[in-house]
């Protein structure tokens, strides 16, 4: 309502344009869950670099950031400066996040649910502590004091970790705000678009992950078992025929499963070790989203840090796996080790959501519309509101279309938006409901490139004049 004017003069009023831009939400922020050597338990921690993760969850300062094992920091006398020294217990989550940042990932939230079990005998460790304690009392040697602190820390870690059940801890419980554990901790972080539990292949845990992702429109990147023999845990044959049925055991429109595990160099052992593929793939999702957009299938991309694969597949071996929604990582002699699949695990059951990029594009659009339209809640439910909503949604989808995410030469071919009397009859208005109908035509990957070649007869020469 305009102000009442009584004194002659010049007045300035700010008038809303009615335009509320809808911004696309992030698509490659990952929620990682697993066990770590250090750090807070069951608390989402934002991590934006490998060094930051190392400092928070591995527990000692870095000289060189070359692997999850790092290098000890020593003083002039050769003693460790830090109380918590490197140890041999490098977790699957450590390697997963290392691979994530090296393959193009830029931001994630880490939930540590446990510390890894230690195989040393605590009785022997206690005897060693008693022995060094006595030596320190007798000689007052600073080196012994530092060594004593290290062993005491290791013993404390053993006491807190031996009863850990990683599967149970990942599933967790929801006791409400400030009392959540495991997967439920991510309820406090609304910007996560991907969920990864590196190296976790137990079916009961993965089904819990899928249930969570279906509920909150988050996409899960899953690991296939490391060896074919482990398929018996799913009740499947321990061969490639059994592997092809893995997608049916983990069926979801919000998930993709990858095989095989990746061999990468471990500086500590000076040899290659097998690492779960999900961390590498999560980084590749981030790389593709940044360089091309979420509409581009995250496939035919180089896997950085990959030296070799646990299994090297042929075209024939991949054929059935691809049809059943198991994405393969292949080692090609000419183009290197690459992700060579872009399908969800629901490929057979619901082909509409067969492609990863289609599902993730819809996740992004849905979340963007939800976040960008909250201003309309409790506004007068009339034609003016409908026009504003339609205008804002149309502008947003126009930008999506121009980015190459939707098919069609024109906006009319790429999408439609309806918000008028036809979608909002009086009974909806009386119930306080506004309905906006939207249809979008997503681009789909060119999964099979076919050249059709035939012999061509020479053209007949023109008759002589």
Please provide a written account of the structure.
The chain has 14 helices and 14 strands. It is α/β, with parallel strands linked by helices and 465 residues long. The protein folds into three domains: 30-116 and 164-353, 3-Layer(aba) Sandwich (Rossmann fold), CATH 3.40.50; 122-161; 379-460, no CATH class. The chain has a nine-stranded mixed beta sheet with strand order 2-3-1-4-5-6-11-12-9, sandwiched between helices. A three-stranded antiparallel beta sheet has the order 8-7-10, with helices on one face. A two-stranded antiparallel ribbon has the order 13-14. A hairpin with a 3-residue loop joins strand 11 (326-332) and strand 12 (336-339). It is globular and about 95 Å long. The model is unreliable at 159-164 (pLDDT under 50).
């Amino acid at each position: 309502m305009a102000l009442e004017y009584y004194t002659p003069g010049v007045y300035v009023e700010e008038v809303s344009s009615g335009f509320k831009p809808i911004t696309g939400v992030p698509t490659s922020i990952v929620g990682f869950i697993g066990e770590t050597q250090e750090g807070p338990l069951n608390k989402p921690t934002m991590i934006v670099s490998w060094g930051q993760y190392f400092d928070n969850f591995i527990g000692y300062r870095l000289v060189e950031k070359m692997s999850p094992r790092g290098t000890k920091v020593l003083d002039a006398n050769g003693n460790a400066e830090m109380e918590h020294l490197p140890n041999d217990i490098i977790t699957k989550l450590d390697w997963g996040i290392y691979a994530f940042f090296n393959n193009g990932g830029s931001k994630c939230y880490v939930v540590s649910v446990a510390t890894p079990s230690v195989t040393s005998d605590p009785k022997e460790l206690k005897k060693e502590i008693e022995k060094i304690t006595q030596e320190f009392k007798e000689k007052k040697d600073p080196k012994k004091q530092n060594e004593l602190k290290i062993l005491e820390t290791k013993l404390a870690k053993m006491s807190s970790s031996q009863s850990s059940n990683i599967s149970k801890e990942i599933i967790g419980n929801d006791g409400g705000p400030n009392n959540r554990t495991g997967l439920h901790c991510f309820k406090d972080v609304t910007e996560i678009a991907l969920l990864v539990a590196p190296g976790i292949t137990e079916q009961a845990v993965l089904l819990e992950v899928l249930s969570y992702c279906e509920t909150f429109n988050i996409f899960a990147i899953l690991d296939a078992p490391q060896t074919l023999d482990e398929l018996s845990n799913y009740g499947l044959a321990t061969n490639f025929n059994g592997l092809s049925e893995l997608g049916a055991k983990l069926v979801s429109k919000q998930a993709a499963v990858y095989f095989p595990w990746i061999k990468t160099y471990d500086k500590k052992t000076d040899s290659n070790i097998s690492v779960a593929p999900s961390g590498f793939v999560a980084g590749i999702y981030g790389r593709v989203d940044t360089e091309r957009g979420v509409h581009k299938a995250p496939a035919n991309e180089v896997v950085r840090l990959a030296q070799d694969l646990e299994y090297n597949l042929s075209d024939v071996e991949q054929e059935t796996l691809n049809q059943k929604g198991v994405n393969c990582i292949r080692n090609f002699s000419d183009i290197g080790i690459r992700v060579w699949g872009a399908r969800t695990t629901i490929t057979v059951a619901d082909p509409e959501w067969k492609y990863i990029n289609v599902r993730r594009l819809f996740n992004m659009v849905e979340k963007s519309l939800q976040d960008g339209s909250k201003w309309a809640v409790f506004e007068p439910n009339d034609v003016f509101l409908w026009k504003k909503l339609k205008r804002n949604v149309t502008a947003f989808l126009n930008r999506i279309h121009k980015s190459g995410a939707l098919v069609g030469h024109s906006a009319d071919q790429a999408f439609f938006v309806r918000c008028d009397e036809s979608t909002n009859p009086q009974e909806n208005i009386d119930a306080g409901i506004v309905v906006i109908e939207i249809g979008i035509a997503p681009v789909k990957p060119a999964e099979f490139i076919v050249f059709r070649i035939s012999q061509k007869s020479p053209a007949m020469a023109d008759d002589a004049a």
